[in-house]
Amino acid sequence: MRYIRVFDTTLRDGEQSPGASMNVEEKIHVARQLARLNIDVIEAGFPVASPGDFEAVRRIAEEIKGVTVAGLARAKDLDIERAAEAIRPAESGRIHTFLATSDIHLRYKLRMSREEVLDAAVRAVKKAREFTDDVEFSAEDATRSDWDFLCRVAEEVIKAGAGTVNIPDTVGYTIPQEFGELIEYLMNRVPNIDKAVISVHCHNDLGLAVANSLTAVLKGAGQVECTVNGIGERAGNAAMEEVVMALKTRPKFFNADTRIVTEEIYKTSRLVSKITGMVVQPNKAIVGANAFAHEAGIHQDGVLKERSTYEIMKPETVGIPQSKLVLGKHSGRHAFKERLKELGYELGEDELNKAFERFKRLCDQKKYIFDEDIETLVSEEVKKVPEVYSLLELRVSSGTSVKPTATVRLKVRGEVVERSEEGDGPVDATYRAIAGITETKSHLEKFEIKGITGGTDALGEVMVSLEEEGHTVRGYGSDTDIIVAAAKAYVNALNKLEGRKREPEKGI
Ligand code: KIV
Ligand code: ZN
Q1: Is 282 buried (19+), middle (13-18) or exposed (0-12) by CB count in 10 A?
Q2: Per the CB 3.0–4.6 Å rule, which of 193, 332, 383, 429 could disulfide with 423?
């Protein structure tokens, strides 16, 4: 069985999804969960891009052990030096440097000749090797590059000391057969290819990122770059959970596997979705709400008789909880902490106290508490952003014969402000009141609502996208009262917009 390395770029390429930016604390929580998944390499960010990115890579390098931490760098000295400084505390640190190799990028973006690109790539790898033995080189837009030129670049960067050569399908253009042929071509034509791991990094513009990655594995790629839930630039990257489970489910076909602890997949998916505000579509493979739901009578009958009739994977294998009743009103702090541990959350004392308070409040509102409720409640604690605005109180009146009205009390930079507004519905009235208090110029792009568990007392989850001056942020809120959940999501997004104003823009 060949061992395929999983390089996770949720915190770098994943964060490039519009509105999915994460603050440093959020990135550390994701990184901890990626370490539990047993990811081989965590690409923690692009250190030169902003002080926030630098800090995230540095903190992850300091705090997350047992995994390689990578920092991205263009083929420029300053980028490489910043990446080197950020990964320095890591147990095992990698510099990932990249330069485009396609003629279209050379002509229009870089304005460089092929010889200049070859030279710059070699220089960058040598420079990176001054700081670490673990250097990866990516030939950006590889799939639209001349194959022979790509071979020359691969050969020279390997000679210069790159231990991993990444072949990105940057624009999601290739198709499985063609990509397989390209990997085979490299394998056969690059004389020193056995000195490096060939990696692939596929984008999903044609919906083929996972298929392309798997075809590359069949042709000899030893590392796959991917993101949790497939988030990423434009249509996203290859979805980690899909690549991993394809290899796991078809071992004879691929004769290859990863070291991922698959039972951690579902929890990771939920955490990333909550933190980024990127909702997972119900029919998403592996982690979607319907991925293991059998609706047709014939299928249900088959599964009841023998699961393998219609199930190729077991939900337990990816850690999908069975909605067990876990805790209730009389459960103490110790039991709560133990249950959290079983669910994979180890909170600091302060976070734990706050989560326990919320749990107790939830017990007063809701008779049955499921694992999903606890996860929701905890991940709200985990993903807190610094609060310029906090929701103190919300009162609404609405119904068939009254004009919906909301009164909102917010703490704004330490001062309490109250405002009442009417609206087209209770959510609209609430949002008008919050917008009035905060004087926000943002525009609500998206509003999504869903129930976490069944029943009318279920926790409701609201995700919103707010746009201001070309930037989009996502906010998240949960509560048994959906209007309160909506208010929390709006306030959370407004706090993120405030956070953006404090954090200098990414320079790239
Ligand atoms: O898509 C891409 O080409 C990238 C590189 C930086 C690897 O993200
Ligand atoms: Zn990419």
Answers
A1: exposed
A2: 429
Residue 170 Cβ inside 6 Å of ligand 1? The answer reads: yes
Same domain, 356 and 395: no
Question: Where residue 382 falls among pLDDT bands split at 50, 70, 90?
Answer: low
Q: Is the pLDDT of residue 325 over 60?
A: no
Distance 262 CA to ligand 1 centre (A): 26
Residue 459's pLDDT band (boundaries 50, 70, 90)?
confident
| Mean pLDDT of the 439-452 span | 89
Instruction: Tell me the best of 11, 13, 150 to mutate to test the pocket of ligand 1, counting ligand atoms within 8 Å of each CB and taking the most.
Output: 13
Do 245 and 306 fall into the same domain?
Answer: no
Residue 376 and residue 409 in one domain: no
Averaged pLDDT, 96-107: 98
Range of the domain at 345: 293-382
Q: Which ligand 1 atom lies nearest to the CA of residue 141?
A: 3
Q: Which residue has a Cα nearest atom 6 of ligand 1?
A: 98
Ligand minimally distant from the alpha carbon of residue 167: 1
**Domain co-membership, 366 together with 419:** no
Write the pLDDT tens digit of every residue in 258-314: 999 999 999 999 899 988 888 898 899 999 988 887 777 787 778 778 888 988 999
**Residue carrying structure tokens 């991925």:** 291
Whether 507 is in a domain gets the answer no
> How far is C-alpha 200 from the geometric centre of its chain's CA atoms?
18
**CA distance readout (Å), 257 to 223, 224, 243:** 11, 11, 10
397 in the same domain as 360: no
- Whether residue 457 has pLDDT greater than 80: no
What span, in angstroms and rounded, lies between the C-alpha atoms of 240 and 266? 11
d(CA 414, CA 408): 16
DSSP 503: S
Q: Which ligand is nearest to the CA of 143?
A: 1
Is it the case that residue 507 has pLDDT exceeding 60? no
**Nearest-atom index, ligand 1, CA of 140:** 3
Mean pLDDT of all residues in the chain? Answer: 91
168 lines ligand 1 (CB under 6 A): yes
Cα–Cα distance, 191 to 476 (Å, whole number): 51
pLDDT beyond 60 at 505: no
d(CA 205, CA 143) in angstroms, rounded, equals: 13
Secondary structure of residue 443 in the 3-state scheme: strand
Q: What is the average per-residue pLDDT within 377-390?
A: 75
Cβ atoms 341, 437 nearer than 8 A: no
Confirm or reject: Cβ of 101 under 6 Å from ligand 1.
no
**Pair (113, 240) in one structural domain:** yes
Q: With the CA atoms of 127, 221, 233 and 204 taken in that order, what torsion angle do they form, in degrees rounded to the nearest 10?
A: 160
Residue to probe by mutation, ligand 1, list 72, 136, 143, 170, most atoms within 8 Å of CB: 170
Report, as an integer, the average pLDDT of 49-73. Answer: 97
- Looking at the structure, tell me whether residues 106 and 220 fall in a common domain: yes
